[in-house]
């Protein structure tokens, strides 16, 4: 399995069940207790900034971006990023991240945050959020809270609680 024909496509509403099953397989039920998931409880991810990876018709990866605010500054939260275990180490995660960051920048977004492993994400321009600059709901390892500036110095002067961007809140029925 050295030459995979991978297609990166925008996520659609029709992808939701397949992506949820992928999340179940890769993250398990404990994912709902994570701070990043707490941010997703009332605001949907942006379909125009979320992507799938496919080999033929088989969904093998996904990345999503959620509208958030850090204090009063609008930003995005990247994640979850997931790739089916048999297809890891083939550059699929890299392709998904690069596509999502490129699209975010093209649409005028300045900041993307995530909770993840710095050794993996620094290659995409992410760096550690300085301790005390941002807080998240629930427990989080602040040594894993990272930010990518899509515009020079976009994180300068930004601080506060990380929360959903309520401009994108789901309607309550």
What order do the helices and strands come in, and which of them pair?
Elements: E1 6-10, H1 16-27, H2 35-39, E2 51-55, E3 58-70, E4 73-83, H3 92-106, E5 111-115, H4 118-121, E6 127-128, E7 134-135, E8 145-149, E9 160-164
Parallel strand pairs: 4-5, 7-9
Antiparallel strand pairs: 1-2, 2-3, 3-4, 3-9, 5-8, 6-8
Biggest sheet record = 9 strands, mixed
The helix count comes to: 4
Give the overall silhouette: globular
CA-atom Rg in angstroms:
16 Å
Structural class: alpha+beta
Chain oligomer state: single chain
Q: Count the beta strands.
A: 9
What is the averaged pLDDT score? 89
Distance between the termini: 47 Å
In percent, how much strand structure appears in the residues? 25-35%
Element string (H = helix, E = strand): EHHEEEHEHEEEE
Q: Uncertain segments of ≥5 residues (pLDDT<50)?
A: none
> Percentage of helical residues?
10-25%
Structure description:
By secondary structure, the protein is of the alpha+beta class. The protein is 21% helix and 31% strand. It contains 4 helices and 9 strands; from the N terminus they run E-H-H-E-E-E-H-E-H-E-E-E-E. Strands 1, 2, 3, 4, 5, 6, 7, 8 and 9 form a 9-stranded mixed sheet that branches. A hairpin with a 2-residue loop joins strand 2 and strand 3 (58-70).
